[in-house]
Amino acid sequence: MNDQDTIVAISTPVGYGGIGIVRVSGEQALACSERVFRPKRRRSKASSHTVTYGHVVDFETGDVVDQALLIVMRAPRSYTAEDVVEISCHGGPVPLSQTLNLLLRAGARLASPGEFTKRAFLNGRIDLAQAEAVCDMIQAKTDASARLASQQMEGRLSGKVRSIREELLSLLASIEAGIDFPEHDVEELTRSELDGGLRSVRSEISHLLQSAVAGRVFREGVRVSIVGRPNVGKSSLLNALLGHERAIVTAVPGTTRDLIEETASIRGIPFVLTDTAGIRDTEDAVERIGVERAQLALGNADLTIAVFDATMELTSDDFEVIQRAHKKPTIVVLNKIDAASQVTARLELSEAFGGQDVLEVSALRGTGMDAVIDALFTMATGDRRIDVESATVTNIRHQECLSRAKRHVEEALVALSEEVPYDLTSIDIRSAVDALGLITGETAEEDLLDTIFRRFCIGK
Ligand code: GDP
Fold this sequence. Notes:
Number of strands: 13
CATH class of the largest domain: Alpha Beta
Shape: flat
Structural class: alpha/beta
Number of domains: 3
Bound molecules: guanosine-5'-diphosphate
């Protein structure tokens, strides 16, 4: 694949919409679009950042395909820093694919996922962490995750990483000056100064790493599986958490046969809630699939909400649920408290879950839901005070690069304390610099870029 090609893609989602956008980028972007777009009023040359009304026209048959607006953004003031043309036509699959095909026939090549953003990176308009934030923004599930993505897109993380990297580079330069010119006093940068510099870098990296837990919770969300035997009110609880109807609530046991996955924003954290089919032995083939999936979801979950019915004694199916739920951090919910004349199961449940609080709830009426929401938030965040402001690192890749950089800095500190020659210390520092460079992309290789940009959608 050639980075010099002119690329084209439909940038809006598949389906029917008011408008749809076909985006072209590259040296031939203007030439290609001139072949397929006939402006209503002829202009000698569209200047940058202008909009022109006209028609998309088949340049071989002369047939008009659609009415459209042509937006021109000349290099370097565009998303990719290349010449970019966007054709805004009607948002149906037919006009969009016809416009796309015309541009392909006019000489552009189909863009691969994320290729526009990759070019923005390769052309130095944004760095790698900023490019990744574009994808996070598109996929953000809550206001808070979008805010974090926006901050990263603006370069909050990149700025911090770059300044740490520069501190290391300047330490490195001083060491290397000593190594390269041994006639100068190598001890110019004294060991204690170097030690101080490295310690300060280590603490800055640690600080960023501390923000990673919060950041990842906001970006990736927390997977919660709601378990319980049939009819205890799992779907009702899911609905109460979502605040709207989604799962079909019925009084027949075993009807939630498939998994229902919904994302609820709780204080900005995306909670991906899975309502599972009742965990119990069953002969019914379809239901069994549901039960197997439920067990799988339970396995993948970060947390579980185990639901029990306050109107009855615990059954053997309930004990089965207790057994399975036990392996994960669990919120214990005793539902239908509104209909229970006396609650017998509370003590037994609390004992079964090692003295844990049993939250009494009426999913139907919404009573006790605040406690469930508090418990979800507390469990997701642990004892840490988590807020959007303190979260800078949101991505596991960045977290790993930072950990690696910190490890190399620590190795450099050890080398320094053992008074090994400076050039060995400098190898460790160089490795730390490279690890940090992977975050912003200075040291990123092609296969890493491929892995990152594959996650994007086509047209972005
Ligand atoms: P699931 O099979 O565990 O998903 O249970 P559902 O959510 O489908 O609920 C089963 C039945 O219990 C339905 O008839 C609900 O209306 C009823 N139900 C659920 N929650 C409550 C509650 O808090 N109070 C009462 N009285 N009934 C409830």
